[in-house]
Amino acid sequence: MDAGHYGLAWVGDSMQSITTFNQNKVLEHIFPSSTAVDCTTGNGHDTLFLSKHANLVHGFDVQKEALAHTKALLDTQGLKNVTLHHLSHTQLDKIPMTNVDIIMFNFGWLPGSSDKTLTTKKKTSLEALEKACHLITPGGLVTLALYPGHEEGALEARALEAYASTLDKHTYQAVSYKPLNTRNSPYSIIIEKRKD
Fold first, then answer.
1. Does the structure show a pLDDT above 80 at 8?
2. Residue 169: burial class (beta carbons within 10 Å; 0-12, 13-18, 19+)
3. CATH 3.40.50.150, applies to 8-108+139-193
4. Tell me: the pLDDT tens digits for 95-122?
C-alpha cells in the first residue's frame, strides 16, 4: 500500500518526496543483476522504478486494486521483469528469491482510495520488516517510508523505528531521516546490511 509522494525530505539544497528520497538511496545499492522487492506496491511507482534498475522484481500487495494499478503502469512501459503477488508483505519469505539487494516498503493506505481504514498495520509491518532484514544480502538496503500523520501510521512508525534501533550494529546500519521542526511529517528509515 503505497502512501504516495506526499512526504517531503531535505536532500542537499532541495526538497524531495519521501518516495524519491528512498529511490535515490536505492540507486547506490542496486545492480543490473539484483533481485528487488516492493513489499507494498500501491499504485506501482516503486515497482516501476525497481523494474528499470534490477534484473528481477517481486511486488506484494493485499489489494487486487493496487496490483491492477501496478500492472497497468508496468504495461505502459512494456516491462516484463516483475512478478506480482496477491499476498501480504508478511509472506515475502514464502516466495523463492535469491540475490535480494533491495527491499522497499511504503506504508499507509492506497493513494486515491476512499477507504482509509484499509492501511498497513503495526503488527504485520513489524513481521515483514524482520523477514526483510533476514532476507536482504550483505550490502543490500531496506527502505521504509513512514506516515505518522494518522493514528495507525503513528503506532506503526514508532514500532518500526524501535525495532530498527535494536538491530545488531555489527550486522546492520539503521538511519532515520526525519524533519525535526514539523510534527507528524512523513519520514524515512534506511537499513543497510553490512558486508561480511
1. no
2. exposed
3. yes
4. 999 999 999 999 875 555 545 556 677 8
